[in-house]
Automatic annotation (TrEMBL), chains A, B:
The gene is hisD. InterPro entries: Ald_DH/histidinol_DH, Histidinol_DH_CS, Histidinol_DH_monofunct, Hstdl_DH. Belongs to the histidinol dehydrogenase family. Its EC number is 1.1.1.23. GO terms for molecular function: histidinol dehydrogenase activity. The keyword Secreted does not apply. SUPFAM superfamilies: ALDH-like (SSF53720). The active site is at residues 327-328. The lineage of its organism: Bacteria, Bacillati, Bacillota, Clostridia, Lachnospirales. Substrate binds at residues 237, 259, 262, 328, 361, 415, 420. NCBIfam families: hisD (TIGR00069). Binds 1 zinc ion per subunit. This is Histidinol dehydrogenase. Transmembrane segments: none annotated. It comes from Fusicatenibacter saccharivorans. Pathway: Amino-acid biosynthesis; L-histidine biosynthesis; L-histidine from 5-phospho-alpha-D-ribose 1-diphosphate: step 9/9.
Length: 432, 432
């Protein structure tokens, strides 16, 4: 792995290189995504099935697009019961963590008769996108569906592309059933996002679409945003390890590679003040590359977006973490808790040498759907909050309004909104 | 005002008509907005100043684009001190309500050494858009800035279009200063959104852009979403009054008109089971129209998007509220609190005959920047939550990891992610 001495210039070059991975930079795909969306919006099912045949090479119709109970039963017959056991243990942790995110409706009141508050309501129907393609990720099924379930969403519609045989990966199906998907559709890509956003004869319109996907899915989600809500625009995965001379280089190397294996756009970065650690990690990476099954992908991702950055000071290292705003941050230093307090921008922060990133991907409980590509500066992990919305509640008694009505009228008049002022004034007509 | 008997068909027609007001339906403006954004992204200040001259007829340069302390002092000299007093009393309520929205970072722990949590961090720099043009809205300045301030945002950059003389409305400036804007820029439109999203020589790049604006602003916010975060895509304002025979028709009429006066795309709707109330409200509306200063705008907005809907049943009325998902909902019935409990979708809910909508626009405390045009099905009022983001925190001790490491390895292998499995396995090398 390349070792780079960090300077202001190298930081800027690296940040610029990283941003090339952003879905919003891929202008060339936008026209075709827009065409797919328009087509699904107007021709509905017919367009969805045509695109599924074209892109996924699967022939579907209104009677086969939705997964049946028989197909779910079949999936359970295929999947190793021990894996179901693992899935259930993971689900317990994920559910427990997300239960803690639940917020209450609340109000305040005063004795002269004012009540102000915030009422929380779960979304009615959400769409959950689960990628298919290169690999099947049942863990993403759990991470998408469980927060919605905990929030109390009434209907969860999952979509995931099927294979040429019109079948969905059985582990994905079993995970969907375990997590509580109400309906599962066998479609993927921009056509699936468009179908969920506008509704077709077979696929119901939803209020929000969540879940990561490829570049077409990301751009389609952005295009339908406003008509429905979305969680965020996901880019390729990334890990940043902040480590000092106390870190175990073999663990650090293994963790870097765990993200690099996702795809060729994934990014793995080590930032350290220790030149010695830098060199040892680089060696360990080379060693692992000889034995890991996905070393082709890993090598490409490391060549493109992998760095070992050596900094002069610990503060400089922290500042670089904030500038990169990584999806996953591991802090493997003398005082990981103290360092965590200094960091502003990261999707998930893993503390200490035993908190390997895959612990969070599957088991610990916090969500693994996280802001990528610098968006941890302003986006958050997928959470129960994504599946509820708020309404403000305002009650004023006659007494309470009469005490302050003149302030409202003055303010409204200063904005030349005389009908606003009138709506208050009319309530005090004929009074002094 | 037209009175319509509600049937399934009329509901659908009305919903379709309402959605015509959505910024995302205005395909024709997207190309010009995209051109403005690309131009500002590459030519920065130069492009911003060209567009400001073209659209706002104001000549700005790097030395005049930002509001100076002298200009703020000048604004305070012009603005009526009594209005400053009103603004301060409103601010007190707005701040108090938003303080209640603040959430804590939290964690859970177990004795064998696991800590899981959620760390909240305020956004570093946000951009606040305040419309200029037809009217100046100092209340929007307060509603935009105060939640950011309460959240602890480090730098708040406000932009608002200036007049031909290069000056910003003095009340807007004074409100910005009172609320705590750190910097104020005299630009508006899509060029302002692009400048905040990408940064120019004079205008810093922000993490999130909030605040309502015209169609160009709405489309520009959507276009830059992903590169920065945004609050939502705002459309024209709307009010829905749910009332029964106990409602005062004069108050209802006045409240309907208070939203209709915003612009010709605004929508004012009454839903009631009482034909008698429907007729009386219609009469009162006609009466007010003769005396209100903005009756031209009001008449057009009522013709386009104003309805008095009469339903057979109270439940049908509630269902129609949910289908419309209004920005502002007034409930003026025998049991407004009970009816509120039945409603799922509304930005802000005003209870009882004294809780007139303008009370919420200015004074009560809850935010007046609300989801419009049906988006209350999935969006929330602007809040402190908009200005913080979360990072998950994960710590596992050696002991805790050793108890469950096999589950993680099994799950990772089931997804064919062998480097994920390896990052856990490597920590137990040489052990049984």
């Amino acid at each position: 792995m390349r070792i780079v001495k960090l300077t202001k210039e190298t930081t800027e070059n690296i940040l610029e290189n990283m941003l090339k991975r952003s879905p919003t930079q891929y202008g060339t795909y936008e026209a075709s995504v827009q065409e797919i969306i328009e087509n699904v919006k107007t021709r509905k099912d017919a367009a969805v099935f045509e695109y599924t045949e074209k892109f996924d090479h699967a022939v579907l119709d209104a009677s086969t697009v939705e997964v049946t109970q028989e197909e779910i039963d079949e999936a359970y017959n295929i999947v190793d019961p021990e894996l179901i056991g693992v899935i259930r243990r993971c689900m317990k942790n994920i559910r427990e963590f997300h239960e803690k995110q639940k917020q209450n409706s609340w109000f305040t009141s005063t004795e002269n008769g004012t009540m102000l508050g915030q009422k929380l309501t779960a979304l009615n129907r959400v769409g959950v996108y689960v990628p298919g393609g290169k690999a099947a990720y049942p863990s993403s099924v759990l991470m998408n569906i469980l927060p919605a379930k905990v929030a109390g969403v009434k209907e969860i519609c999952m979509t995931t592309p099927c294979g040429r045989d019109g079948k969905v990966n059985p582990v994905v199906l079993a995970a969907a059933k375990e997590a509580g998907a109400d309906r599962v559709f066998k479609i993927g890509g921009a056509q699936a996002i468009a179908a969920l956003a506008y509704g077709t004869e077979s696929i119901p319109k939803v209020d929000k679409i969540v879940g990561p996907g490829n570049i077409y899915v990301a751009l389609a989600k952005k295009a339908v945003y406003g008509n429905v809500s979305i969680d965020s625009i996901a880019g390729p995965s990334e890990i940043l390890v902040l480590a000092d001379e106390t870190a175990n280089p073999r663990f650090v190397a293994a963790d870097l590679l765990s993200q690099a294996e996702h795809d060729e756009l994934a990014s793995a970065i080590l930032i350290t003040t220790s030149q010695e650690l830098a060199e040892k990690v680089s060696e360990e990476v080379d060693g692992f590359l000889k034995v890991l099954s996905r070393s082709d992908i890993i090598s490409k991702s490391l060549d493109n977006f992998g760095y070992i950055l050596v900094t002069d000071s610990h503060q400089e290292a922290i500042d670089t973490v904030d500038a990169i705003a990584p999806e996953h941050l591991e802090i493997v230093t003398k005082n990981p808790f103290e360092d965590m307090m200094k960091v502003h921008n990261a999707g998930a922060i893993f503390l200490g040498e035993n908190s390997s990133e895959p612990l969070g991907d599957y088991f610990a409980g916090p969500n693994h759907i996280l802001p990528t590509n610098g968006t941890a500066k302003f986006f958050s992990p997928l959470s129960v909050d994504d599946f509820v919305k708020k309404s403000s509640i305002i009650y004023y008694s006659r007494e309470a309004l009469s005490e302050i009505h003149e302030d409202i009228e003055s303010f409204a008049k200063s904005e030349s909104l005389t009908a606003h002022a009138n709506s208050i004034a009319v309530r005090f007509e004929g009074e002094e």
